[in-house]
Design goal:
The N and C termini lie far apart (about 120 Å). The N terminus and C terminus are likely disordered. With about 240 residues, this protein is of the alpha+beta class. The protein contains 2 helices and 11 strands; from the N terminus they run H-H-E-E-E-E-E-E-E-E-E-E-E. It has a 6-stranded antiparallel β-sheet with strand order 3-2-5-11-7-8, with no helix packed on it.
């Protein structure tokens, strides 16, 4: 083995001694290091504990979401079933209503003023009783209202659709006094009397009017003597038969 000279050994010892002093001055003591180590260990343990708690909470959230999804699915399934049952019951009871547009033919002896759901409809021949007007009856029309004016002897209102969905007869209601909003959707005509027969269709046939339609007026009609102005309404009740 190679031997070192004493001088070299002395220099090495001096170097190590100086290095130890510098290290002691620049770095913390063993107690301080141990203190820092304890703090780090404590924080590490707390972080590990927090991580375990996060895992537990995450597991709970996952279970809750799975249960919530299951509940939502069951609710949707139950609601869909109830809706289907209601639709089937409605079809069985009342049929499926599919409204369609119709053409209404109308005339009045002597002057006619027509309203659909409260809106006045412009007529081409409102003062020619023997020349009827034809208007489009929208699908969702609920109330047909007619103001009739009699200027001479006979009086009457007559109207029909080609399929008989609308015809003038006793299903209409008429009054000889004008009430506010009488032509509107919200008007209550429960105290109005049913329309009265004024004359037969064949007495004054109108082209485009069904043969089973009646001329109507108020109940006080009596030939040449009658109310000069009348207000008549028909509330349509949509059903399977109405198309």
């Amino acid at each position: 083995m190679k031997k070192f000279k004493p001088t070299v050994c002395l220099l090495v010892l001096c170097f190590l001694f100086c290095t130890a002093e510098e290290t002691s001055a620049e770095h913390p003591s063993l107690k301080e290091f141990q203190k820092l180590h304890d703090i780090v260990s404590k924080l590490t343990g707390e972080l590990r504990e927090l991580n375990d708690r996060v895992k537990v909470l995450t597991s709970r959230v996952d279970r809750y979401e799975q249960q919530n999804d299951k509940n939502i699915f069951e609710i949707r399934k139950s609601t869909k079933k109830e809706i289907t049952e209601m639709q089937n019951a409605l079809k069985k009871c009342c049929g499926t209503y599919k409204p369609k547009e119709r053409v209404l033919t109308i005339s009045t002896d002597d002057e006619c003023y027509l309203f659909l759901d409260g809106e006045e409809i412009t007529l081409t021949h409102p003062k020619d009783w023997d020349v009827p007007d034809t208007v489009l009856l929208p699908k969702e029309t609920t109330v047909i209202a007619v103001k009739g004016v009699n200027l001479y002897a006979d009086a009457g209102i007559i109207a029909s659709t080609d399929d008989g969905y609308v015809i003038t007869n006793s299903s209409w209601k008429c009054a000889h006094k004008k009430s506010f909003g009488w032509e509107g959707l919200d008007f209550d005509d429960s105290d109005w009397a049913p329309a009265s027969y004024s004359k037969a269709y064949y007495e004054k046939p109108i082209i485009g009017i069904r043969f089973d339609t009646q001329w109507i007026w108020t109940e006080r009609y009596s030939g040449k003597s009658s109310d000069k102005k009348v207000y008549c309404r028909l509330t349509l009740r949509h059903s399977k038969k109405s198309g």
